[in-house]
């Protein structure tokens, strides 16, 4: 009788019934940094070992990042099971071309029975995960109010909680909620229009790590200025940015002021400003 040998899961779903049940059943559980990587971990393991691998992710907009990996699983005929938690999306249309079955279950224990179904498959579990990933900094917003000019472009990622303020410059709150992808690329894309003096992106460190390859893009230019709100990975972020010849500045949240930010906006260098948040 076949059984699921591995579970790949993302940090958001770690407290879920699925992950806890699989750990209880002594299934090998591996944490992945993001949804896209999680599914490719699964296809890699499955291709190497021929084992059935399950992937558990939050069923929000971010789960769309799993689709490319599931496409690979389908065409390579790999036994991968995608498990999404919650009812945010209608998957019956979005995944139907790359899975051999779409199933709804009410209990995590039921999932273990699907090892004998035709795979790859998608299982939807109605368990909702409470994800508190938003960050805010009134101090940073006040400094930005003072520092930006009408010549600038200011982008706030979906994870940055903004207060209702009227900035002098063009201000965008972009991206999909609960999705970490594409924040740096969004700012880079805007900069290619060359309509503004500075293109400033405010992102969390998780969003930076998901999209940091943008820094090495051939179109990266001196108009880019990223403010990264960091609580853990400031050294990794700084070291990576320096290897790509970015100016890197680290500053504690309490020490940020509009005057110093304004001076940095005028330095004419592509810059990573790491705000150390308590």
From TrEMBL:
InterPro entries: THDP-binding, Thiamin_PyroP_enz_TPP-bd_dom
Pfam families listed in its UniProt record: TPP_enzyme_N
Thiamine pyrophosphate enzyme N-terminal TPP-binding domain segment(s): 20-91
GO molecular function, one term: thiamine pyrophosphate binding
SUPFAM superfamilies according to UniProt: Thiamin diphosphate-binding fold (THDP-binding) (SSF52518)
Name of the protein in its database record: Thiamine pyrophosphate enzyme N-terminal TPP-binding domain-containing protein
């Amino acid at each position: 009788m076949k059984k699921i040998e591995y579970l790949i899961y993302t940090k958001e779903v770690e407290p879920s019934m699925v992950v806890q049940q699989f750990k209880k059943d002594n299934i090998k559980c591996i944490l992945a940094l993001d949804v896209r990587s999680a599914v490719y971990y699964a296809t890699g393991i499955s291709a190497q070992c021929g084992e059935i691998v399950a992937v558990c992710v939050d069923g929000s907009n971010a789960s769309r990042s799993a689709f490319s990996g599931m496409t690979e699983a389908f065409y390579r005929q790999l036994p991968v099971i995608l498990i999404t938690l919650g009812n945010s999306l209608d998957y019956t249309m979005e995944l139907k071309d790359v899975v051999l079955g779409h199933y709804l279950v009410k209990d995590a224990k039921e999932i273990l029975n699907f090892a004998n179904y035709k795979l790859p498959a998608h299982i939807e579990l109605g368990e909702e995960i409470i994800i508190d990933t938003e960050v805010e900094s009134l101090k940073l917003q006040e400094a930005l109010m003072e520092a930006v000019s009408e010549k600038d472009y200011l982008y706030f990622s979906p994870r940055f909680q903004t207060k209702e303020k009227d900035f002098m410059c063009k201000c965008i709150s972009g991206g999909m909620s609960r999705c970490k992808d594409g924040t740096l690329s969004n700012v880079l894309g805007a900069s290619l229009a060359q309509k503004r003096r500075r293109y400033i992106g405010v992102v969390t460190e998780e969003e930076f790590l998901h999209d940091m390859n943008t820094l090495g893009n051939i179109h990266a230019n001196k108009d880019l200025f990223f403010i990264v709100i960091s609580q853990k990975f400031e050294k990794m972020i700084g070291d990576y940015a320096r290897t790509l010849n970015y100016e890197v500045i680290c500053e504690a949240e309490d020490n940020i002021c509009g005057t110093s930010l304004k001076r940095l906006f005028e330095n004419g260098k592509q810059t990573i400003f790491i705000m150390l948040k308590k």
